[in-house]
Amino acid sequence: MAAVLVALVVVANTALTGIQLGELKLGPVLGPVADPNFVPAGAPLGQIGSDPDDPSDPWSAAAPPGGVIVQTPGPTAAPNATGSLRIPIPKNVPTGPRRVGIQAGHWKSDEVPDELRRLIPQTGAEWEGVTEVEINLDIAQRLSVILNSKGIAVDVLPVTIPVGYVADAFVALHADSDGVGENSGFKMAHGARRGPYEDALLNDIKDSYGAATGLDYDPTHITSQMRGYYPFSWSRFQHAVAAHTPAVILEMGYVSSDDDRSLMLDHADLVANLKFLSDTPRSNIFGQDLLVPAFPSRPSRPSPTP
Q1: Alpha carbon distance 159, 271 (integer Å)
Q2: Are the CB atoms for 297 and 58 separated by under 8 Å?
Q3: List of E strands, the chain
Q4: CB neighbours of 61 closer than 8 A, spacing ≥ 6?
Q5: Does residue 253 share a domain with residue 124?
Q6: What is the C-alpha to C-alpha distance for residues 191 and 66, in angstroms, rounded to an integer?
Q7: Which of 63, 149, 190, 209 could form a disulfide with 68 if both were Cys (CB 3.0 to 4.6 A apart)?
Q8: Can you give the residue range of the structural domain that contains 257?
């Protein structure tokens, strides 16, 4: 027992002061990892997450790539307080040109990792021989060319998002169908427990896209699936967009509408105005750790009766 205690003391001191190995000095453990409340990537947070619009769909919340620090409520907090989560600044913040991720919705859905296997059968909308995925990919690729010409680096992404994807902005492109050809318009959403620039990105694209296309905004049909779109859910999936990265989903129109479909097929440039980047410096987006509300704690299970 004494030997174990000594070993623990040595480990604790090493974390603060480092260790000398001959002429080599290994430095102390610094940064978020040194915090006793640090939870490494993928490890459970001991909390229950759920879509705010669909509380019947719970999951065990987990730490994102880069880890998270669980901050419990202080002694003066209300009895029902859940504390907060501090998400460190990503280590791989982009350098050089501004970088944007454009996801072509449903593209390569058959190549997803195991944690996204429920997406395999989701191939998108189709109308009169035109598929959503071909619209999404065509616009994403043409957008890439246009934004590249403006000095913006672009990643055209499939269904599988790189683990903890980091960029100055992320836009998921989709198209909808009502099955009867009556609805028209576009709609947008972003997730919860993310950085402070989601609304700015959404409103910038909403204003410019609406003005350029003449399409009406369709808030009536924004769904919980849009708000809980998996790339936003860093606490549920490792293949998700980093919480610091402003991220939105844009349903560009209804593939079942002749007018909407024509706009999407023939006018990809209408999505290419990203004023958000000029209004929002990278140093602001990645300037500090994020502090977001914690999820409710997982209730403790009663001890089995002997």
Answers
A1: 20
A2: no
A3: 19-21, 24-26, 38-39, 44-51, 54-62, 68-71, 84-87, 99-104, 126-127, 130-131, 153-157, 169-176, 187-189, 247-254, 290-293
A4: 44, 45, 47, 48, 49, 235, 236, 295
A5: yes
A6: 19
A7: 63
A8: 99-285
- Give the integer Cα–Cα distance in Å for 30 and 35: 9
Q: DSSP for 263-299?
A: HHHH-GGGG---HHHHHS-HHHHTSS-EEEEPPPBPP
Question: Residue 24 has which token pair?
Answer: 């080599």
* pLDDT one-digit tens code per residue, 40-95: 999 999 899 886 666 777 899 999 999 999 998 766 656 666 789 999 999 999 99
Give the pLDDT confidence of 145-194 residue by residue, as tens digits: 999 999 999 999 999 999 999 999 999 999 998 888 889 999 999 999 99
Burial class (CB in 10 A: 0-12, 13-18, 19+), 20: exposed
Residue 33 is assigned to a structural domain of this protein: no
If one counts the domains in the chain, the total is 2
Task: Specify the residue for token string 């779109």.
Answer: 229
Residue 52 tokens, joined: 């705010």
**Three-state SS for 158?**
coil
- For residues 198 and 125, what is the distance between their CA atoms, to the nearest angstrom? 26
| In contact, 40 and 69? CB cutoff 8 Å | no
Question: Residue 273 falls within a domain, yes or no?
Answer: yes
Handedness of CA 218, 191, 194, 144 (dihedral sign): negative
| H or E stretch covering 244 | none
Evaluate whether residue 81 is within a structural domain. yes
As a whole number of Å, the CA-based R_g of the chain is: 23
Position 180 in a domain: yes
The per-residue pLDDT for range 203-254, each reduced to its tens digit, is 999 998 888 888 999 999 999 889 999 999 999 999 999 999 999 999 999 9
Nearest to 177 by CA among 254, 110, 242: 254
Pairing between strand 44-51 and 38-39?
unpaired
